[in-house]
Amino acid sequence: MAAWGKRLAGVRGVLLDISGVLYDGGEDGGAPIRGSVEAVARLKQSRLKVRFCTNESQKSRQELVGLLRRQGFDISEGEVTAPAPATSLILKERGLRPHLLVHDGVRSEFGQIDTSNPNCVVIADAGEGFSYQNMNKAFRVLMELEKPVLISLGKGRYYKETSGLMLDVGAYMKALEYACGIEAEVVGKPSPEYFQSALKEMGVEAHEAIMIGDDIVGDVGGAQRCGMRALQVRTGKFRPSDEQHPEVKADGYVDNLAEAVDLLLQHATK
Amino acid sequence: MAAWGKRLAGVRGVLLDISGVLYDGGEDGGAPIRGSVEAVARLKQSRLKVRFCTNESQKSRQELVGLLRRQGFDISEGEVTAPAPATSLILKERGLRPHLLVHDGVRSEFGQIDTSNPNCVVIADAGEGFSYQNMNKAFRVLMELEKPVLISLGKGRYYKETSGLMLDVGAYMKALEYACGIEAEVVGKPSPEYFQSALKEMGVEAHEAIMIGDDIVGDVGGAQRCGMRALQVRTGKFRPSDEQHPEVKADGYVDNLAEAVDLLLQHATK
Fold it and tell me: Which reaction does it catalyse (chains A, B) (predicted)?
């Protein structure tokens, strides 16, 4: 593999995944990953542009940012690209009235949306809300539509909380796709539109940007398909087998965000 | 389409699906489908051999047969091919110790099986038991195994109860397959081994047998792939679009089991 200097040359913008990179979530709000608070601070003091690009769909942006600020992170709502507000815009543009299978924490992002007489289903990481009854209700709504529309906020397989691995929305999206014989529209990583909107918001071209994430497929593979570079951190849901993934090879593997920022500050801004 | 006489010639054995053909399940035990009690009785009085071939995995065979007998059906445990006892045999043969994600009603079928220190996951139609917690537990067991084995009792998309359509085990099987990046082993329709065991139990060759079911893919398509003929009833989960299914064409469509039995008694036994 080429030296870091070559791999990081010309990077002007950094996209940071949140869960598994900044912190591990959990029942009590979770805990920051060692070194990440300082790493974000150093990055923001540098000449590099920073944007947080998350698939978090259990919490509103406000709630997520509040939680991270309490953990010491320098982050504000305007710096976060999140799937719920992006979905809310899409629903308005297309005149869609969703049946929402989402966590209560994110419902406020859909406050302005008409949910009467639904003509689509929106599914997000509902956590405990993924009861049989709630899934069956969403399924029945879809089966009653002539042209069923299912929008999924991300399609992650799982994420890591302090208590261990947790099933993510992608698993439940697959369940509804199979039961209804349909294909969902994904808003969030690894959708190219989603990465591109984050790039646009930070004013950086894909070839000048690098993604840092713990998900070899959703973060690394997705960003690379958009022409970005991508590093995988060995925190969060990282598993050693990711480094031998049959389809995706990161531009580099680092122990954690702190190491990634060390390397970026050393090589990218020259 | 050929005349019924030609389509049913040479049939010696009839495989009957249960849910959606004999009865629609429901919270109060469900209700027999009009004409089905008499149709089963007439079939059993004929020269045709009969076997019940179900993917029911919420109830033990004993419980299912008890419920059907109370509704007036002439049926006994020995006449039923069901996935739970078949799975129990497989587990014993292969020395597998399952983590069971199943309905309490079917747990007795696994009474003789060692479930300590699990080295596989068995998933059945758990109904309300498909909570997020239970799904996450099964997911974590699989992720901790070096070679994850997932056995699914059927892979139905949905079935019909008196209250409406209900998500079936297949949707949850797909969720775990996706989350873990694995493929489940299916015990039940449309697995060829499963149909063949039912044929063997009734002592009839595939070309002499006909399946009657409400599931165009699991019943009709599965039976046809084994060399049987198959009729779809317009009861249970049947939907008009099934008659234009892009991949599966039944050997005939009938309004209900009563009509199927009328035709069989008229044409098959000549």
Answer: diphosphate + H2O = 2 phosphate + H(+)
Q: How far is B31 from chain A (nearest CA, A)?
A: 21
* Alpha-carbon distances of B170 from B17, B57, B175, rounded to whole Å: 17, 12, 9
CA A166 to CA A80: how far, in whole Å?
23
The verdict on a CB contact (< 8 Å) between B171 and A165 is: no
Shortest Cα–Cα distance, A156 to chain B (Å): 8
Classify residue A44 by its DSSP letter: H
pLDDT tens sequence for chain B (270 residues)? 789 999 999 999 999 999 999 999 988 889 999 999 999 999 999 999 999 999 999 999 999 999 999 999 999 999 999 999 999 999 999 999 999 999 999 999 999 999 999 999 999 999 999 999 999 999 999 999 999 999 999 999 999 998 999 999 999 999 999 999 999 999 999 999 999 999 999 999 999 999 999 999 999 999 999 999 999 999 999 999 999 999 999 999 999 999 999 999 999 865
Residues of B in contact with A136 (CB under 8 A): 166-167
- In angstroms and rounded to an integer, the radius of gyration of the C-alpha atoms of chain B is 18
Q: Chain A closest CA to B230's CA: distance in Å?
A: 22
Domains and CATH numbers, chain B: 11-75+189-267 (3.40.50.1000), 83-187 (3.40.50.1000)
Cβ within 8 Å, pair A171-B168: no
Are B97 and B119 in contact by the 8 Å Cβ rule? The answer is: yes
Are the beta carbons of A135 and B140 separated by less than 8 Å? no
Interface confidence: ipTM more than 0.90: yes
Residues of A with CB under 8 A from a CB of B: 126-133, 135-136, 139-140, 143, 157-158, 164-168, 170-172, 174-181
